[in-house]
Amino acid sequence: DTDDVGHKYYLELELEDVLDKDRTVSCTAEVLYHLGSKSSAPDVQLTVQGELRSTEEADKEFYTRIRSLEKELVAENIPDSHGNVPPELEPILLLAWAASGYVIWQNSTENTKFNLAQVKHVKQVKRSDEDLQFDYVVLLHEMVSQEVLPWQVTLLWHPQRGARVCQCQGPAPGA
């Protein structure tokens, strides 16, 4: 407890490389939840000891493939009801994890525990600049209440600039 400020947590954890399950790095974090503030995201200070595998080559390959599509990518139910993800949609799911992580951080309290359950729908939006844009409806499972909440998230991505959430709204109406 930090007087008149909030509750601070000190965490030590291992991060697993989603592309190389045998590779992990140690991580420490300080998370501060502000007292009485349900509308502000917790403050997070993160330190990573080590490096995960570079995704530069896979990122460039995915970027080139998506940019060369004649029609915008549209997909639903990733993973499907059996937990399967087609290999060509794995990068779309990884970007959804990044987008969901932002939504979870912005909307977490000490009494919530969100997990990405599924990409209900994703649609690529053509842009005049170099970024790729994906409009997602993601289903977040709130583990404490057991609710599954739909969120609309717009994500911009470029291999050199990374992922950026430019809009999120939830729960998404009618999803």
UniProtKB/TrEMBL annotation:
SUPFAM superfamilies, per the entry: Cystatin/monellin
What Pfam family is a match, any one?
LXN
Gene3D superfamilies, alphabetized:
3.10.450.10
Residue ranges annotated for the Cystatin LXN-type domain, each copy included? 1-57, 74-175
* Keywords, in A-Z order: Protease inhibitor, Repeat
Recorded GO cellular component terms are:
extracellular space
Q: Which GO terms describe its molecular function?
A: metalloendopeptidase inhibitor activity
Q: Which family does it belong to?
A: Belongs to the protease inhibitor I47 (latexin) family.
Q: What's the name of the protein?
A: LXN protein
The species this protein belongs to is Tychaedon coryphoeus
Organism phylogeny: Eukaryota, Metazoa, Chordata, Craniata, Vertebrata
